[in-house]
């Protein structure tokens, strides 16, 4: 009887005890300057009216001739095109041939062509100027199951285009299995050949420790100056550049001077799966990285470093952050902490334009999408 009681007492202890945490230490040479990126007095305001949600998940700025530029967002099966100078709606385009689109669907507007990703169908459509489907691809084939690659195409990790190839990336939820095959993180579609290549992988620490299985597993990507795929992982101080066919991978240090280390969770994996608040509590208490953007106008990269949020109990959260700037030679030139109004800045709606780095700021007026502008101090544009 005493043995049974002892075992019953021991089971919850074993279940609640986690693994020894792994520390991902920051061993690089960080940027010292914090003054090169400055917030501008001007803003960009898009007048969306009362029909659209003020926090779009899929949107894009498109440069026109001269000083003209446009803001395009996807809402259900319609593209809305705004003059980004006046903020006024110019036109709408219904996408009728691509099935019903949900919140994780996205698009890339390139010249007169639109590449549209239907998340539910796992289909990519190429539409011509009349929005007629010219090509389509299923990005989850017989060899790549949904659990191995689940692409998204949202603003913070959009469809990319480079030299006749488009790229989508996806999130692998849960603890990654170090004893199994490493799942791909992206698929690259050769448009002319109708060929799909799967590749890229999470860094090794993701297979050694438990990072909560959700927020730390999010993948952020952009193009580098050579047209290669460049990735940012929340639990890695480096960014990774892959060739278009994923055969070559190089890493560059792009860590934050405010981030000494990132530590895996010491909670039991089952506890994290079952308890959403516990997952969030672990994530907000850690340093992490997120958005990665290439600025072709200034030949620099921006990376968001997020820092621990103190005092979170429940509900929505926004972590304090800084913006790291790196030149195309891999030299860190600045890291600017965003201390003013950071909780009202929407990192899911962040863009590079001729005007600078644009980040959406939440306002009381839900009929307007407002972007604040950050620029390098030596930028004369």
Name the helicity range: under 10%
Helix count from the secondary structure assignment: 4
Task: Please state the average pLDDT score.
Answer: 90
**What gross morphology would you assign?**
globular
Detail the poorly predicted runs. Answer: 1-17
Radius of gyration over all CA atoms, rounded? 22 Å
**How many E-type strands?**
27
The percent range for strand residues is 35-45%
What distance lies between the first and last C-alpha atoms, to the nearest angstrom?
80 Å
Number of domains: 1
Your description of this structure?
By secondary structure, the chain is mainly beta. The protein has one domain (27-96, 159-184, 203-376). It is 9% helix and 41% strand. The protein contains four helices and 27 strands. The chain has helices at 2-16, 205-208, 269-274, 276-284, and strands at residues 23-25, 37-47, 59-63, 69-75, 78-83, 89-94, 106-110, 113-118, 123-127, 133-138, 151-152, 160-162, 165-170, 186-190, 195-199, 220-223, 229-232, 238-242, 249-253, 261-263, 288-295, 300-306, 321-327, 332-338, 345-353, 356-361, 368-376. The strands form seven sheets. Strands 11, 12, 13, 14 and 15 form a five-stranded antiparallel β-sheet that branches. A four-stranded antiparallel β-sheet has the order 2-27-26-25, with no helix packed on it. Strands 3-4-5-6 form a four-stranded antiparallel β-sheet, with no helix packed on it. A hairpin with a 2-residue loop joins strand 25 and strand 26. The longest helix has 15 residues, at 2-16. It is globular, with a radius of gyration of 22 Å.
Features:
mainly beta; five-stranded antiparallel β-sheet; four-stranded antiparallel β-sheet
